[in-house]
Each structure stands twice: as structure tokens, then as C-alpha cells.
Specification:
three-stranded antiparallel β-sheet
Length: 67
């Protein structure tokens, strides 16, 4: 099992009720769990995230830190 660092919350795009919202909706010390997915670009990753059903809350897309 490996970990992947994510860029800061300022680079995030949040999705709530299938609507894109710029920035992170997380405030304070939140726990982040997620999936690393392969997409053509950031817009494609955001589109994929909009297809994931979320019962209560929101989804967030952040680019990974690359070497």
C-alpha cells in the first residue's frame, strides 16, 4: 500500500449536488479519504467525480503532487 501526496486545498474543486464549486468545502481539521484515479486532465477528473453518487456530503478533486 502506498500513499500519494495531494496539492493544497486552494487547488481543489468541490462537487456538491452535481454542481462544481471552486475551492475546498473542508474547514478546519478534516479527515480526507479518497481514490487516486487516472484522467486525461483536471477537467476530466472533475467530470468523473460528478458521476460518483454521494449520499450526504460532497466530493473534492485535487491534483496529486508530482515529482
Amino acid at each position: 500500500m502506498t500513499g500519494h501526496a495531494l496539492r493544497p486545498a486552494t487547488t481543489a474543486v468541490s462537487i456538491r449536488d452535481n454542481v462544481k464549486i471552486g475551492g475546498s468545502l473542508a474547514d478546519g481539521a478534516q479527515t480526507l479519504a479518497g481514490y487516486l484515479l487516472e484522467a486525461f486532465d483536471f477537467d476530466h477528473a472533475t467530470w468523473i467525480a460528478r458521476m460518483v453518487p454521494v449520499a450526504d456530503g460532497w466530493g473534492e478533486v485535487r491534483p496529486p503532487v508530482t515529482a
